[in-house]
Amino acid sequence: MEGRVEILNNADYAGRMAEIEKSSQISPWSDRLIRECFAPNSRSNVLGYFDENCCLRGFLVYSVLLPESELENISVEPSVQDQGIGTSLMKSYCDILERLECEKSFLEVRVSNDRAIHLYSKFGYFKNGVRKKYYPCADGTREDAILMMLERSKK
Ligand SMILES: CC(C)(COP(=O)(O)OP(=O)(O)OC[C@H]1O[C@@H](n2cnc3c(N)ncnc32)[C@H](O)[C@@H]1OP(=O)(O)O)[C@@H](O)C(=O)NCCC(=O)NCCS
Questions:
Q1: CATH number, position 126
Q2: pLDDT tens for the chain, residues 1 to 155
Q3: What is the 113 CA–ligand 1 centroid distance (Å)?
Q4: d(Cα 142, Cα 116) in Å, to the nearest integer?
Q5: What are the DSSP calls for 102-148, one per residue?
Q6: CB atoms closer than 10 angstroms to residue 6
Q7: Domain count of the chain?
Q8: What number does the ligand 1 atom closest to the CA of 89 have?
Q9: Which of 39, 52, 94, 105 lies in disulfide reach of 69, CB 3.0 to 4.6 Å?
Q10: Is 86 in the pocket of ligand 1 (CB under 6 A)?
């Protein structure tokens, strides 16, 4: 898909982000949590992916506390998944990590989320732990989280 990644600096797109989040995630972030990303004291940063019609189709939330960063969330609208949007968002995020000379990035992902695990592995993340029964499931059970980490290559 032809589009572009931009930094979202204010809550103008929070409603649209909440729509994408609810349609794509098993246990979505609340509207409040999404709005809090844009609060003045928030440590979260948001990247948005806009399609050729300037419609927000996906977003990525991260925080940085040098020398580390956490990838807090990534969501792409279901109708346009598997078209490279997640890859574009991850590339922009990894470019930022490189620019900031961030040494490590951490994330958590459901053990069953093969697509996301594939995406993270493509950017060099590797598994470095498991958090048992971390995520709630729709049927009332719980699912393990895989912890993944990216280490900046020392040049
Ligand atoms: C995970 C997610 C962000 C990826 O975004 P996306 O735009 O679909 O990703 P892309 O199209 O850039 O890349 C998807 C990759 O996964 C691969 N893939 C698709 N289905 C897969 C599967 N079942 N198993 C393994 N890999 C798979 C694709 O082939 C592609 O890999 P490639 O680039 O090597 O060909 C998106 O699917 C999403 O929002 N999912 C729901 C929310 C979510 O799970 N977020 C992550 C929470 S940790």
A1: 3.40.630.30
A2: 789 999 999 999 999 999 999 999 999 999 999 999 999 999 999 999 999 999 999 999 999 999 999 999 999 999 999 999 999 999 999 999 999 999 999 999 999 999 999 999 999 999 999 999 999 998 999 999 999 999 987 65
A3: 9
A4: 18
A5: --EEEEEEETT-HHHHHHHHHTT-EEEEEEEEEEE-TTS-EEEEEEE
A6: 15
A7: 1
A8: 12
A9: 105
A10: yes
